[in-house]
# Entry
Amino acid sequence: MPALAQLKLVVALELRGRGDVQLYRVELPGPKVGKDVAADARVRLSISRSHFNELATEGHVRQWRDAFEHGQAKAEGAPEILRLIETVVARQEERARTRKVRS
# Structure
């Protein structure tokens, strides 16, 4: 999302699979992705690997939001950063709805 492009943030991504967990460090802006433990992460995301693969290839903002609302993905970390991301996503969805109405 363009509104989050200037946000400097380190995110720990936990992908759960069958019997194992893979940890990734995602640094924004970029993103720069590395396969290691992100000790300096301000936000931690946890999602099943199969669901992440599906969302990463074909998912839109609405599908990501649904995954968080239904508990398929979980985010924890600094409340002010989570609130900022939630606000930006809500505004982006509102803009998309407004564009569809005008078309």
In short: The longest helix spans residues 79-102. The chain has one domain: 8-102. The domain at 8-102 is CATH 3.30.1050.10 (Nonspecific Lipid-transfer Protein; Chain A). The mean pLDDT is 87.
